[in-house]
Amino acid sequence: MGLRVLAAMSGGVDSAVAAARIAEAGHDVTGVHLALSANPQSHRTGARGCCTIEDSRDARRAADVIGIPFYIWDMAERFQRDVVEDFVAEYAAGRTPNPCLRCNEKIKFEAVLDRALALGFDAVATGHHARLTDGVLSRSVDQGKDQSYVLGVLTRQQLSHAIFPLGDSTKAEVREEAARRGLTVADKPDSHDICFIADGDTRGFLAKRLGQEPGSIVDQEGEVVGSHHGAYAFTIGQRKGLHIDRPTADGRPRYVLSIEPVSNTVTVGPREALQVTEITCVRPVWNGPEATGELSVQLRAHGEVYGCRFETRDGEVVITLDQPATGVAAGQAAVLYSGDTVIGSATIATAA
């Protein structure tokens, strides 16, 4: 007997093929498009953004081709509070958030899953590229499209009600299948960057919400080498757009080393000063099997993977890297893997 499955349909090719596969497998599938913007645009800007009127229409057309019921759920208020406002607050506090990760945690697998279970559905299916076997999350076979990192915050309970049908396919195979099924989104570009910042100008977006707050850019000795209009506009490891007045004596580039929101000061220095080997993380979520064998950690959504070991201390997770990492930013997630399997995640607090 099939499951009652709610298929989250963004209007893109991945979620459309995911819904089609679940329906073809004999499950009772209902498609739902999440309206996350209070003022959706009528057209996308290239491959940027989501939540446009066009996206909802594309999702509806895909559901019609598949032959499943389709609804639109208004999640704009919840998305604004739990994702957009959280994003702004994290930057204001000198941290670098990942809104896609927060959206998976708070919207797709908290708000949506809670409503789906209340309505009698057994599971929520999405088009994420990740494998899920008996509730255990692993990387996609398409390493270049793998999204297990942004799903690493989900709890065991949430994963037990999730379905990711695309984990055993490459993106190219998904597009080919969409074309065979007659889905018009087969060639639709992937959305990228931050969906609620359609023009890609994160600094401008934050400036409108936080206002300009001039401050100093200093070197490691505390000497002022430039100025800025808001420390929130910077992230650890940033090299471009620093507008530093005075070059280094040896001509080497400077990178953002730290952001101090209270004094509104940005400290810059050489790339080697960014290197860290010990990372302390808070709010751990243990959602996989016991850690065994080769352990590794991913520190950004599309970042490198580092061999590591870890221990828990007073509810925090202390990760020691086998090789130094650069650009490690507070507020990002550290997702721990055993081979390709996710064993847990935590939020980066400090690094040294």
TrEMBL record:
Residues 204-269 form the tRNA-specific 2-thiouridylase MnmA-like central domain. It catalyses: S-sulfanyl-L-cysteinyl-[protein] + uridine(34) in tRNA + AH2 + ATP = 2-thiouridine(34) in tRNA + L-cysteinyl-[protein] + A + AMP + diphosphate + H(+). CDD domains: MnmA_TRMU-like (cd01998). GO terms for molecular function: ATP binding; tRNA binding; tRNA-uridine 2-sulfurtransferase activity. The keyword Cytoplasm applies. ATP binds at A8, M9, S10, G11, G12, V13, D14, S15, L34, G127. Residues 145-147 are annotated as: Interaction with tRNA. The record marks H128, Q332 as: Interaction with tRNA. The active site is at C103, C195. Catalyzes the 2-thiolation of uridine at the wobble position (U34) of tRNA, leading to the formation of s(2)U34. Belongs to the MnmA/TRMU family. This is tRNA-specific 2-thiouridylase MnmA. It comes from Nonomuraea dietziae.
